[in-house]
C-alpha cells in the first residue's frame, strides 16, 4: 500500500493499475471502458471519493444520469465539502430538473468551502429570474456573509474626520494658517472624492462604462489579465478624476430586458480585491462578488442621462441581442456608443477560427458599424483593419473617429515574485536552455511553423545542441495537427515541452529563465506576450504580421510571416550567437520603457474626453417621448430574413435584418427567425421610393404546445389583423398599404396569446419565455406583378434566399 498513491491516498498495486487504465481510457475518450475500470477499482477500495467523482463523470458522458448521480452521492458522503454536490447540480440541469439542481447548488455553496462554481450557477439563476422565489434565493446567498466595511469608505472617513476637526477649531490652539491648511486639505479630499463644495449636481456629458464582460470574467476567474486591467484602471481613473455623478458603470442583461446600473462602491471593492490574489475561494472575494451580483439583479433599469457616452472597453460579440439594446438607448436617450475593438481575427483569418465564432463575430461587426459613433483600437494595424472591413461592407469610417490605444504596458513586473527554480526540474528544463512560446494552442498562432523550424534545427545541430521549445497555453481550436506533429516525431517529443494551467509565478519563472521568446503568430490585434517578454528583458522573435511589429518595436527580431525557412534562420542566430543576443537584451534593458496601466487608462480617458468635446450637445427631449428613431429603409422586391448570421465571409451589402426590430420585445435571432417576448415586439420599416399602394408579406411562427391567437397591427397605415395559429405552425400573412406610408417610417406590432417557458425544456440552460415568432418580411408595389410572382415562386420552391436583401452579388 505504501508504494502507490492516488490523489495522495495510499492504494494497492492492483487498484493503482485499474485507476491508471481508467485514466488512459478517459484520455482516449472511451467513457464506457473508463467507467468499468473505475468501478472495478472502487469494488476493492470504496473509500476513494475522487474516483467516485471520476466514475460519475464517465456516466454523465454516457448520459447514464441516474448512475452518475449515485456515484456523485457516494463521493459526497465521503467528502461533503468536495465537488460532488455541484456535480449533482450539473446532472440535474441536464435532466431538466431545475428545482433539484437549485438544491444541490445551494448545498454546495453553503458548505465549508463555499464552492465558487455553485455560486456562479446560483447567481445565474438569480439573474435569469426563472420563476423561483428571488427573495429566498437572495437570503440563501447572503446567509453567513460577513459584513466588511467598504474599501472606498476610507476617503469618506478621512473627510468626515477633517470636517469634525474644523468644527472644533475654536477649542483648539490653532493659528489662522493651520486652519487654512485644514480647510485646503478638506477641499482637496472633497475634490478627489468627486464632490463639489456646493454639492451641485453634475451638468455635463455622462460617461457610462459597460462592464458586462468584466463582471462575467469575475464569475470564472479573479486575477485580471491584460484587457481586464485596462478596464479596471480606466474606470477607476474616471471615477477618481471626473466630477461626482459624471461616471457610471452598467452591465447588459438580456433576461431583464434592460441595462442595469452597477453600484460603484461594490464594483470598486471587487476590482480592488481582484488585484490582490487569484484565490477564487477566498471568503472576502466570494462575499464581494455575491453582493455585487445581488445588487445588480435587484437594481432598477438604468436610465441614461441625455446624450451620455456608452463606452465598452471589453468585448460584446458574445452577447446576444446587444445592439438591440444599444439601439433602444440611442432612441430613448440619444446616447453615443464607443467600443474598444481589439482585433478582426475571425474576419481577417477565418481559416483559423471555428465556424460558430466567425459567424458570431460577423454578426457583431455588422452591428458595430451601424451603432458606433467613435472607436478605440489597440494598434494601427487594427485601425487599418477596422477601416478596411468597413469599406468592404459598404460603410465609411473617418480615420479621425478612431483612436489608437497601444497596450504597451507593464503586464508583469520583472521584480514580481516567481516560482522557485525547482519547478524547472519538475518540467525537465534548465535555465537558459529553452525557448518560450506563450499563447493558446490554436492554428492561428502557428505552432506548426515553430515545430518545423525546431525539427530542422535538431536535424542540423543534434538534439543536445538545440534548446528545448516550451509551449505554454491552453488548448484552443483547430490544434489537432500540432499534437499530431509532436506525437509522430521522436525528435520533437524529446525537445518540445507542452505546459498549461500555470500560475503567474510559474509563468514568471519561465520568462526569467528562457533564452529568448518566440511568437510566430499569423495575425494579432496587439500581441500581449510580446510586451510581456520585453518586460522581462527577453528578446522576442516575431513574425512581421499585423500588429506584431508595433508590439515588438525596435526590440524584436522579425521574420516574414509564413516563412518557416526565415524563422529557422533567425532562431538559429538567436540560439548560437550569444553576443548578438546579449546586445539585444542590453538594448531592451536600456531603452524599453513600458507604460503603467494607469497611463493606458489615462490615454483612454483623454481620447474619450476628446470625442466628448467634438460632439454636439445632446438632442433635447425626455425619456418618455424619446427621440426620432433611426429607421432603416426597405428595398422593394427584397426578402428580409430576421435570422442569425450564417455567413463566414463578408461583402458589400451584407447586413442583418435584426436592425428592423424596434424596442426590446424580441429575443435574439434564431436559425429560422426571431421569437417575441410575451408582451410582443415590433418592426420599424421605412420606404424611400413608394409610388403607390404596397403589398407586404410577413411570416409568422407559433410557439409549440397550444393554439396561438395573434394580432398584427400597424396603426400608422391603418392595418390590423387577427387570427389563430396551430402549435408550431408557420404562416405567411399579407399586409396591404393602399395609401402612401409616412416618409419617416412606421411600426408593425406583433402580439401572441400563448407563450412557452423554454427553461422547463432545457433544464434552465435556455431561460427564455417565447411568444409569437416572426421569420421575415417582403414588400413590393402592389401593381408589380413580377415582384409578387417572384416572391410566390421563391416561397413555393424554398428559394427565398435568392431574393434576400443581403445576398452576395453574383459575378460572371
Give structural notes.
The chain is of the alpha/beta class and about 800 residues long. It has 5 domains: about 5-140, Tetratricopeptide repeat domain (Serine Threonine Protein Phosphatase 5, Tetratricopeptide repeat, Alpha Horseshoe); about 155-190, no CATH class; about 205-405, Rossmann fold, CATH 3.40.50; about 420-595, Glycogen Phosphorylase B (Rossmann fold); about 640-805, Jelly Rolls (Sandwich). The chain is built from 30 helices and 28 strands. The strands form 6 sheets. A 7-stranded mixed β-sheet has the order 5-4-3-6-7-8-9, with helices on both faces. It has a 6-stranded parallel β-sheet with strand order 12-11-10-13-14-15, sandwiched between helices. Strands 16, 18, 19, 21, 24 and 28 form a 6-stranded antiparallel β-sheet that branches. Helix 20 (about 445-460) packs across helix 26 (about 565-575). The protein is globular. Residues about 155-160, about 190-200 and about 620-625 have low confidence and may be disordered. It comes from Sphingobium cyanobacteriorum. Pfam families: Glycos_transf_1. Its EC number is 2.4.-.-.
Amino acid at each position: 500500500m505504501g508504494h502507490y498513491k492516488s490523489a495522495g491516498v495510499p492504494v494497492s498495486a492492483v487498484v493503482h493499475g485499474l485507476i491508471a487504465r481508467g485514466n488512459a481510457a478517459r484520455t482516449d475518450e472511451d467513457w464506457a471502458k473508463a467507467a468499468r475500470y473505475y468501478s472495478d477499482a472502487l469494488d476493492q477500495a470504496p473509500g476513494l471519493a475522487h474516483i467516485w467523482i471520476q466514475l460519475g463523470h464517465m456516466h454523465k458522458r454516457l448520459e447514464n444520469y441516474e448512475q452518475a448521480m449515485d456515484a456523485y452521492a457516494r463521493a459526497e458522503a465521503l467528502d461533503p465539502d468536495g465537488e460532488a454536490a455541484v456535480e449533482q447540480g450539473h446532472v440535474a440541469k441536464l435532466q431538466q430538473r431545475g428545482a433539484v439542481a437549485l438544491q444541490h447548488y445551494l448545498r454546495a455553496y453553503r458548505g465549508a468551502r463555499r464552492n465558487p462554481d455553485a455560486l456562479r450557477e446560483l447567481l445565474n439563476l438569480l439573474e435569469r429570474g426563472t420563476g423561483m422565489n428571488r427573495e429566498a434565493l437572495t437570503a440563501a446567498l447572503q446567509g453567513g456573509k460577513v459584513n466588511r466595511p467598504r474599501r472606498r469608505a476610507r476617503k469618506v472617513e478621512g473627510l468626515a474626520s477633517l470636517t469634525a476637526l474644523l468644527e472644533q477649531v475654536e477649542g483648539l490652539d490653532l493659528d489662522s494658517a493651520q486652519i487654512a491648511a485644514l480647510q485646503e486639505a478638506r477641499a482637496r479630499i472633497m475634490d478627489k472624492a468627486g464632490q463639489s463644495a456646493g454639492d451641485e449636481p453634475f451638468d455635463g456629458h455622462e460617461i457610462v462604462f459597460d462592464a458586462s464582460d468584466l463582471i462575467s470574467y469575475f464569475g470564472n476567474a479573479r486575477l485580471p489579465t491584460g484587457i481586464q486591467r485596462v478596464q479596471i484602471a480606466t474606470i477607476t481613473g474616471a471615477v477618481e478624476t471626473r466630477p461626482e455623478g459624471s461616471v457610471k458603470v452598467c452591465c447588459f442583461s438580456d433576461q431583464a430586458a434592460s441595462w442595469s446600473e452597477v453600484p460603484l462602491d461594490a464594483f470598486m471593492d471587487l476590482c480592488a480585491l481582484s488585484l490582490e490574489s487569484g484565490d477564487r475561494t477566498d471568503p472576502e472575494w466570494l462575499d464581494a462578488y455575491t453582493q455585487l451580483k445581488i445588487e445588480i439583479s435587484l437594481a432598477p433599469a438604468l436610465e441614461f442621462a441625455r446624450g451620455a457616452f456608452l463606452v465598452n472597453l471589453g468585448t460584446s460579440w458574445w452577447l446576444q441581442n446587444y445592439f438591440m439594446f444599444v439601439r433602444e438607448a440611442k432612441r430613448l436617450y440619444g446616447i453615443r456608443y464607443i467600443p474598444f475593438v481589439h482585433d478582426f481575427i475571425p474576419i481577417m483569418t477565418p481559416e483559423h477560427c471555428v465556424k460558430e465564432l466567425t459567424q458570431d463575430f460577423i454578426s457583431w461587426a455588422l452591428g458595430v458599424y451601424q451603432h458606433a459613433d467613435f472607436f478605440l483600437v489597440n494598434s494601427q494595424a487594427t485601425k487599418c483593419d477596422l477601416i478596411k472591413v468597413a469599406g468592404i461592407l459598404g460603410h465609411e469610417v473617418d480615420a479621425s473617429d478612431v483612436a489608437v490605444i497601444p497596450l504597451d504596458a507593464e503586464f508583469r513586473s520583472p521584480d514580481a515574485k516567481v516560482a522557485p527554480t525547482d519547478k524547472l526540474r519538475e518540467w525537465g528544463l534548465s535555465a537558459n536552455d529553452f525557448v518560450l512560446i506563450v499563447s493558446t494552442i490554436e492554428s492561428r498562432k502557428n505552432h506548426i511553423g515553430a515545430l518545423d523550424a525546431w525539427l530542422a534545427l535538431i536535424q542540423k545541430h543534434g538534439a543536445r545542441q538545440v534548446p528545448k521549445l516550451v509551449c505554454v497555453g491552453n488548448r484552443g481550436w483547430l490544434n489537432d495537427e500540432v499534437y499530431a506533429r509532436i506525437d509522430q516525431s521522436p525528435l520533437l517529443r524529446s525537445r518540445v515541452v507542452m505546459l498549461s494551467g500555470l500560475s503567474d509565478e510559474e509563468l514568471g519563472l519561465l520568462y526569467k529563465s528562457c533564452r529568448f521568446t518566440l511568437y510566430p503568430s499569423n495575425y494579432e490585434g496587439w500581441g500581449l506576450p510580446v510586451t510581456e517578454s520585453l518586460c522581462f528583458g527577453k528578446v522576442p522573435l516575431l513574425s512581421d504580421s499585423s500588429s506584431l511589429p508595433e508590439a515588438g518595436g525596435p526590440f524584436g527580431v522579425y521574420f516574414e510571416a509564413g516563412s518557416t525557412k526565415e524563422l529557422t534562420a533567425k532562431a538559429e542566430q538567436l540560439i548560437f550567437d550569444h553576443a548578438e543576443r546579449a546586445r539585444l537584451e542590453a538594448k531592451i534593458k536600456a531603452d524599453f520603457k513600458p507604460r503603467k496601466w494607469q497611463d493606458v487608462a489615462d490615454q483612454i480617458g483623454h481620447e474619450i474626453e476628446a470625442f466628448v468635446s467634438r460632439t454636439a450637445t445632446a438632442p433635447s427631449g425626455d425619456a418618455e417621448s424619446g427621440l426620432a428613431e433611426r429607421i432603416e429603409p426597405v428595398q422593394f422586391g427584397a426578402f428580409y430574413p430576421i435570422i442569425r448570421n450564417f455567413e463566414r465571409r463578408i461583402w458589400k451589402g451584407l447586413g442583418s435584418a435584426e436592425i428592423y426590430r424596434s424596442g426590446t420585445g424580441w429575443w435574439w435571432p434564431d436559425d429560422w427567425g426571431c421569437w417575441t417576448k410575451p408582451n410582443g415586439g415590433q418592426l420599424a420599416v421605412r420606404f424611400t421610393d413608394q409610388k403607390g399602394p404596397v403589398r407586404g408579406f410577413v411570416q409568422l411562427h407559433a410557439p409549440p404546445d397550444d393554439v396561438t391567437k395573434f394580432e398584427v397591427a400597424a396603426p400608422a397605415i391603418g392595418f390590423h389583423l387577427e387570427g389563430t395559429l396551430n402549435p408550431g405552425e408557420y404562416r405567411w400573412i399579407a399586409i396591404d398599404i393602399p395609401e402612401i406610408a409616412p416618409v419617416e417610417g412606421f411600426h408593425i406590432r406583433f402580439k401572441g396569446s400563448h407563450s412557452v417557458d423554454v427553461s422547463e425544456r432545457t433544464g434552465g440552460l435556455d431561460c427564455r419565455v417565447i411568444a409569437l415568432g416572426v421569420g421575415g418580411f417582403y414588400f413590393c408595389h402592389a401593381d408589380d406583378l413580377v415582384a409578387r410572382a417572384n416572391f410566390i415562386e421563391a416561397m413555393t420552391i424554398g428559394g427565398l434566399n435568392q431574393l434576400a436583401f443581403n445576398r452576395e452579388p453574383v459575378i460572371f
